[in-house]
Amino acid sequence: MTLIMVVDDDQDLAEMLGIVLTGSGYEVDLVNSGDQVMPLFEAHEPDLILLDVMLPGMDGVEVCKAIRAKSMVPIVMLTAKGDTQDVVLGLEAGADDYMVKPFNPNELIARLKVRLRRTSANQEVIQLRIGDVLIDQVAHSIVKSDKIIPLTRLEFDLLLALAREPGRVFTREALLNEVWGYQNATDTRLVNVHVQRLRAKIEADVNNPLIIQTVRGVGYKAGA
Amino acid sequence: MRFLSNRWRTSLLFRVISTTFALSILLIGATGSVLYFQIANGIYKEKTNGSVVEAQSLIQYSQEQLFSTQYIAKTKVKDVISNIVRSTDQTLTSSPRDVVLVGAPIKNQKNSLYNSASGGIPVSAIPASLRKSVEHSDKIKWIRAPIVFNDSSKSDAIIVGGLIDIPGQPTYELYYVFHLSEQETILSLVISLIWFTGIFLVLVVGLLSWYVVRQTVNPVRAAAQIAEKLTAGDLDRRMLVHGKDEMARLAISFNEMAVSMQQQISRLENLSRLQQRFVSDVSHELRTPLTTIRMASQVIFDGKEQLDPSAARSAELLMSQIARFELLLTDLLEVSRFDASASILERSPVDIKALVSQAIDQLQHEGVKQIRSNFPSGDVIAEVDPRRIERVMRNLIANAIDHSENKPIVITIKDSDTEVAVAVRDYGIGFNESEAKRLFDRFWRADPSRSRIRGGTGLGLSISLDDARLHQGTLFAWGSPNNGAQFVLTVPKLPGIPIQNDLIPANPNLTTSTSFLSFNEDDI
Asked: B204 CB near a chain A CB, below 8 Å?
């Protein structure tokens, strides 16, 4: 059974999230403060973390960094402020996605499903290559210069989406749809931040990217 | 000349000094003249009195000498006269004089035997007026007049004359001519002294006034400079305080003003920060319980089949009203962020065509089928905040749908090198002049029953206008009753370039007489 860790200091909201998630067939761990996250995380190894940005004790952004240092588990941030630095800080700390309160519970479930889905392996091509990066869809791993590079599932999905159609220019909206499962979204920060994180892991020179190239005013494409 | 008039207007120092110069020249000139005339008058009066007394005694003495020739033998009249008619020895006396002896006129007879004069003065040099008055009186007469010498040189003199009897002869007139050259020398000395003193005084007064005015003007200049710096935002600037005089008081009051201004500004800044904090706190505090309420209502709504009809309907109402409340909260927070100047523009290069298409697609998903688009063929890339521009488009299109009476809505995009314009035109009920004025007001609705169709918050157009301004763009509206309305958003493609052209004029049909324009108030 899939275990989701819900970290929120508002006990009523946490309980409500528990009801909704349990109703959708997930197992739920409720945590009320940032300090309790790491011990429980190590003990239960959840499949996904739902994390409030504003937390007593350890701040949501710091919790996010601490988890990323140890694991590639999907993290979805919950924030009350949709258009402040909070979102960007959370994404840069390693969150895969975020939900702005008050969110639609159905949309939350849909988003969690996208984050939890296994990239289906029944593709014709099992191994893909862009530049000196080898993508193994079966092993779900990235190999660059004989070294395995650890990527979050989201980063893997993003790279794979670009690599499957080399040369095609993806708009940010198209990537949001394909990788994050958004419809009609315009929040390009998600894409920008994750492309930057991905580049930092796989590009030789971040300022002169060769694997994920920017097409000004349009979006991104995979390089040769 | 223009330089001087310019200086006059701009420099207090120049004005005060030139005024002081002019006034002191006038005053010292007048004083000098009065002084000169007083001195000259005094000197001449003194000389005249002395001359008259001297001449009187001399005439008397000469008369006695002449009479004595009658009693003393060997004394000849001629010798006595030559002794009388003689210039004073210049080395012995300080007042040089000459003597003229002339016979008084007698009828039909010549009386000029002893006519004589000293010092190169012709006998005719004695003015006729003086001679007349001397001839008709026993007393001594005098006059001040110029004397013309034989060599026709001229000189000022006091001439004193009286009658004299020469034994055996008709009456003669004896004149003493007192030269004024000495007095003239003194007076020319006095004049040059007055000039010298005058010029010296004018210069001293000028310098003094320059010094005094500088003492006053310098602190004023310093205050002006510091005031300029304060205006430019350098709020920590203060004037230097020297001593305890009026200037020190000016500096102290000035500094107190600056301090109070700084406090006021920081108080306002603080207020604005508090306001922003408040907005942010309200945001967080309201959103968390609203999230719980929303999820709870969703759970109840999802299970409404098991509820009785009234509870099920209640669940539906709860859901729709929570959605409305949420929209209102979002818009309210956006508005207060604009009011607190806390809105941040997150620019990124986007295709405006794609952005507008997205807004249209979203509405078409909701079953709206009346939208026609009129886009240019190429990409329209602009550096804008996509979230805000999409929101503006959603608001404008939703507004058009609400007022279109199901007639078509045309969306046009036009761009130039520097800016891009999007027009949303409907052919519905339009608006009139009084409505045009309130169009962008918060919570204002032309027809309250209409807005319920799409559930707008009444803040959409106000937020759209703020969004346009945040982009340094414009939002114009045109409307005509029953002919529809057109809203035109124009934004620069790159930040910092002000809008210059009307890519799409707000009024789509300039010949329509009954049309009203509502302006982005910054442009009026």
From this structure: no
Position A121 confidence tier, pLDDT thresholds 50, 70, 90: very low
Which conformational region is residue A81 in: left (phi greater than 0), alpha (psi within -120 to 50 degrees), or beta? beta
**B325 in A contact zone (CB under 8 Å):** no
CATH code for the domain in which residue B370 is found: 3.30.565.10
Please list, in sequence order, all residues whose beta carbon lies within 8 angstroms of the beta carbon of residue B457, skipping any fewer than 6 positions away: B324, B327, B328, B331
Percent of chain A with pLDDT over 70: 92
Q: What pLDDT does residue B524 have?
A: 33
pLDDT tens-digit map of A60-72: 889 999 998 888 8
As a whole-number percent, the residues of chain A with pLDDT over 90 amount to 20
- CB-nearest to B298 from A10, A106, A187 is A106
Three-state DSSP class for residue A184: coil
Question: Does the residue B69 lie in any domain?
Answer: yes
Domain count, chain B: 3
Q: How far apart are CA B294 and CA B324, in angstroms?
A: 11
- Based on the fold, state whether residues B408 and B386 are members of the same structural domain: yes
Does residue B79 share a domain with residue B27? Answer: yes
**CATH number of the domain that B104 lies in?**
3.30.450.20
Taking CA atoms, what residue in A is nearest to B381? A217
Judgement on whether residues B317 and B366 belong to the same structural domain of the protein: no
ipTM: 0.79
**Cα distance between residue B314 and residue B363, in whole Å:** 27
Residue B161, domain extent: 1-233
Q: Which two tokens stand for residue B507?
A: 């009024």
CB contact under 8 A, B386 and A186: yes
Q: By mean pLDDT, which of B107-111, B119-123, B349-353 is the weakest? A: B107-111
Which residues of A fall within a CB distance of 8 Å from B379?
A: 217-218
- Does residue B354 sit at the A interface (CB-CB below 8 Å)? yes
Range with the poorest average pLDDT among B104-113, B224-233, B351-360:
B104-113
CA-based nearest distance A143→chain B, Å: 32
Q: With 0.95 as the threshold, say if the pTM is over it.
A: no
What's the mean pLDDT when you consider all of chain B? 84
Residues A81 and A88 sit within 8 Å (Cβ to Cβ): no
> Is A5 buried (19+), middle (13-18) or exposed (0-12) by CB count in 10 A?
buried
A72, A85, A224: which is closest to A157 by C-alpha?
A72
Shared domain for B310 and B459, answered yes or no, is no
Same domain, B436 and B304: no
In a shared domain, residues B366 and B512: yes
Domains in chain A (CATH in brackets) are 3-116 (3.40.50.2300), 151-222 (1.10.10.10)
